Predict the structure.
Amino acid sequence: MDEPTWKPVVPFERTFDALYGLEILEAGPEVARARVVVRDELKQPMGLVHGGVLASIAESLTSAATALAVLGEGRMAQGLSNQTSFLRPIMHGTIHAVARRRHRGRTTWVWEVEISDDDGRLCALVRMTIAVRDLPDGRVQAVDQPR
Amino acid sequence: MDEPTWKPVVPFERTFDALYGLEILEAGPEVARARVVVRDELKQPMGLVHGGVLASIAESLTSAATALAVLGEGRMAQGLSNQTSFLRPIMHGTIHAVARRRHRGRTTWVWEVEISDDDGRLCALVRMTIAVRDLPDGRVQAVDQPR
Amino acid sequence: MDEPTWKPVVPFERTFDALYGLEILEAGPEVARARVVVRDELKQPMGLVHGGVLASIAESLTSAATALAVLGEGRMAQGLSNQTSFLRPIMHGTIHAVARRRHRGRTTWVWEVEISDDDGRLCALVRMTIAVRDLPDGRVQAVDQPR
Amino acid sequence: MDEPTWKPVVPFERTFDALYGLEILEAGPEVARARVVVRDELKQPMGLVHGGVLASIAESLTSAATALAVLGEGRMAQGLSNQTSFLRPIMHGTIHAVARRRHRGRTTWVWEVEISDDDGRLCALVRMTIAVRDLPDGRVQAVDQPR
């Protein structure tokens, strides 16, 4: 069996993504989609969805899509930077995220993620830069460990 | 009583900040500090703290500190952009955040947030731009509602 | 005559845009285009076009397009942030920039700019946030003057 | 002679840095400084220094400082992303830039650059991420060439 096997350190149902309710609908190498149902636990005190939830969705979606694409080559993916611009608040319904890959380099992938509400209005833009590194014998490796 | 009163729409103990365990230690107009204790529910499957948690901490800390400073002037604060660079993974212990205000303008405040681990190593840098807007009769107002 | 008149402080042919050779081809409120012919004076010592040239093109193009759209309302535009990701070097030919407006708010506009080479390859992505402010009697006004 | 020799493709006096007048005062591995004297050719039509000039200064300064530090190891440096926030306009005098290295990883260095005016007022903040790559036989190499 040549397929690399990867065993999660934390089972998905106990991760942060499970905590805030991430549902990945598609995780292809060029387009990825996810959604999260809004509930009070995702809001800040003024009743708006917390900006960190939107940043988290983009982070997970693009990391997962990149990882799925490179794992077969014995490589891993990890977020290098997350640039989120907040355009319009979300207060209820479902958060919809669509990620499009804009760059596939040897060591970094760049994705742009659009986050919208149930009415299709653009609520946030996220540019994610994902580092792609060789997987050292299946062990977890820091993105860019200082020396 | 001239002091503006502000009643949260969602009580703190039901917010996203409560969900991931934010503790704000100091929320001054120039320096603010917070911490979060690491647990599995804040991690991604590889066992590292999810990048979205770090982005969320910076978002809440600087929004809260700005809001506290401007609420007395009848103004409100809301995140405009969050730029997080991930430098080193955090796997256990406590996440420590220190925010320093770098700009106080009429309509935007800019903060830089350092996130470090229990050994004092810098793990992420976040630049937060917070929009400051007039509070319309105490009602929640979108940051920058499209027309 | 209701049309606001705006007299440049520095004539275009002496500006920075003239120095590096910006040609704006289209400056609409939703899409804008520009190009710059590569020459040694735009390069860094290794022979690649300097990243600052790409950032400058996006800055000017989106500022100009926003200004043209809001000047008629007695408002002005000024860059608030410029986030440039460098994907592929440009070494010769012409630099092509296409800007698409993604958000039109009361106080900020957000544009995404794609910069490509003569072969249509994506070389940089720029997210520009432009502040829109009331024009005080036609005088130049700082974006967000600290108090 | 073990010292790597590096011959510029474009001589400094013909580069973009020479065009806008960059003077690097210090280019250490942890702190770097530069300045640029303001003249009309660095301005936009409203009479303010063009934001692209500030982005360019940060780009050159941190690329040069990183390159000097890694060239001895047979490695090269190239800008990966430039995130500039504009805080206060500069209209005359000298532009002063101080860069501080915040992260030194195997494949990326992160710097934060403060840009100020003659009165020491903070006018822009730039976070630069610099990619560090092996130098292939002294030849110029794209940052992250798509496959």
